[in-house]
Design a protein that fits this description.
Mean pLDDT of chain B: 89
Strand content of chain B: over 45%
Shape of chain A: globular
Mean pLDDT of chain A: 92
Structural class of chain A: mainly beta
Number of helices of chain B: 0
Distance between the termini of chain B: 41 Å
Structural class of chain B: mainly beta
Oligomer: heterodimer
Order of helices and strands of chain B: EEEEEEEEEEEE
Helix content of chain B: under 10%
Radius of gyration of chain B: 14 Å
Shape of chain B: globular
Chain lengths: 114, 119
C-alpha cells in the first residue's frame, strides 16, 4: 500500500493564482481531511469528508474548496492564493466508524505564496 | 468544545536520560487521546492512543503515555531518549461524546513540542 500520497511536495504561487493540491489514499478509508500546519499553532482542520460526495468545513475553511468524487481522492483547491495561505498542508485519512479513528497522514505540501 | 494544551514549546534532554512531553486536555466526556511524531520534512506518524482500559499505554519506538483522568493529562514518556527521537511531537484529542458521523474524524491538535536530544 502506498498509504496517503500528496502532490506536489513544494509549490510557489503568486498572489491571486489558483491551484489544486492533490491527495489520494489506497486504504479504502471513508474519512479524509485537510490540515494546515503553521509554527506554534499545531494543525488546523480546513475541510473534511466522511465519504464520496460528502464534504464539510473545518476550523479554517475560508479561501479553500474541496470535492470528493471518489473514495480515494480528496483534492484541495485554492481559489485565489494569498500570502496568509503560505503553510504546510497535510492530508489525512481514517476509517469513519467502528474504530478509534487513528489518522494516517501524507508527507505534506509546502506552499509559498508571494 | 474539546481542546488540548502542550505547555512546553521545546524539551531538551541528554541521550540516555528519561524524556517526558506534557499534554493536558479538556473534553466533555471520556476522551480519545493520541500522540503523533513529526520528523523534519515528513508527515505525522502515529505513536500511540488511549481509548479505554489501562492508564499506561505502550506505543511505537519505546514510547509510552500515562492517562490521568483527575489531572486531565496524557504525558508522553520514554525511559531512555535517543538522538533519533529529536522531532516535533503532537498530542491530539477527540471527544467521543461528539460521535456523530460528521465529527468522527475531528481531532484537536496541540501546538506541538519540539524535542531535542543531545549526544
Amino acid at each position: 500500500n502506498a498509504g496517503v500520497t500528496q502532490t506536489p511536495k513544494f509549490q510557489v504561487l503568486k498572489t491571486g493564482q489558483s491551484m489544486t493540491l492533490q491527495c489520494a489514499q489506497d486504504m479504502n478509508h471513508e474519512y479524509m481531511s485537510w490540515y494546515r500546519q503553521d509554527p506554534g499553532m499545531g494543525l488546523r482542520l480546513i475541510h473534511y469528508s466522511v465519504g464520496a460526495g460528502i464534504t464539510d468545513q473545518g476550523e479554517v475553511p475560508n479561501g479553500y474548496n474541496v470535492s470528493r468524487s471518489t473514495t480515494e481522492d480528496f483534492p484541495l483547491r485554492l481559489l485565489s492564493a494569498a500570502p496568509s495561505q503560505t503553510s504546510v498542508y497535510f492530508c489525512a485519512s481514517s476509517y469513519s466508524t467502528g474504530t478509534s479513528g487513528e489518522q494516517f497522514f501524507g508527507p505534506g505540501t509546502r506552499l509559498t505564496v508571494l | 468544545a474539546q481542546s488540548v494544551a502542550q505547555p512546553e514549546d521545546q524539551v531538551n534532554v541528554a541521550e540516555g536520560n528519561p524524556l517526558t512531553v506534557k499534554c493536558t486536555y479538556s473534553v466533555s466526556g471520556n476522551p480519545y487521546l493520541f500522540w503523533y511524531v513529526q520528523y523534519p520534512n515528513r508527515g505525522l506518524q502515529f505513536l500511540l492512543k488511549y481509548i479505554t482500559g489501562d492508564n499506561l499505554v505502550k506505543g511505537s519506538y519505546g514510547f509510552e503515555a500515562e492517562f490521568n483522568k483527575s489531572q486531565t493529562s496524557f504525558h508522553l514518556k520514554k525511559p531512555s531518549a535517543l538522538v533519533s527521537d529529536s522531532a516535533l511531537y503532537f498530542c491530539a484529542v477527540r471527544d467521543p461524546g461528539a460521535l456523530t458521523t460528521d465529527s468522527w474524524g475531528k481531532l484537536q491538535f496541540g501546538a506541538g513540542t519540539q524535542v531535542v536530544v543531545t549526544p
